[in-house]
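User: My advisor asked me to double-check a structure prediction for Formylglycine-generating enzyme family protein before group meeting. I don't want to rely on an old file, so could you generate it fresh from this sequence?
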Amino acid sequence: MNLAEYIKENMVLIPKGQELIRDFIDPVKWLSSDYKMSAPGTRKGKDTREELVDVLSFLLLKTTVTNELYSYVTGIECDDKIKDFPVVNVSWVEAIEFCNRLSGKLGLEKCYILNSVSEKTIVDYSKDGFRLPTDVEWQYACRGNKKGYRYGDIEETAWYDKNSDKRLQEVKMKRANDFGLFDMIGNVWEWCFDLYDEKRYGNYRIFRGGSFASEERACGATSRRKSFPEFQIDDLGFRIAKSSFSGLR
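Assistant: Sure, here is a fresh prediction for Formylglycine-generating enzyme family protein from the sequence you gave:
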């Protein structure tokens, strides 16, 4: 793999814009909660929190990080049969470490200053290295200039429990959104950088978009879940972002 060429060919420029972030917060749910945040039809009895956020332009990988890319960067062996599938069973902590390692391999400035206490990990968006998308960046990019819950018919754009045979699928097998991004909904959930709500949920981080095992209503632009940063599961991966083209030309 020519790493520099791969990254240049597979990063998409997301234009600046605005995104409305809306959460439905259960006032009686705390750390033990496992309910689905922001999934349609689950807002009864919850407090609504809304914020219109300006989004600066940034780069985002066309697909989730594949086994091939993850193997190349980390040195962990990968079976050739699964090289084009999303890497899964990767924690938020491991995704952050991957971003720094990839930045180092390409001679870019690392975005993260790591801390053993995950909520004290510092991100510097002025650096030219790789990082996870923020929660609002992910949602804005997922919509791809559309206003609805999905950027197209779910059968054409997403792998979910009714069409995936309940298993992981290769990337780029469904239609991309208008930004040229594949699998933003379905196939695998995707880690974002953000803490969900530190006062109520401690160090829990956000992941987005639904997976091959998810029901239809969980696969959409505003669907999010949360878990602790060491959490791993077989339908959760990530994609990488970058603040500018600096260092890639």
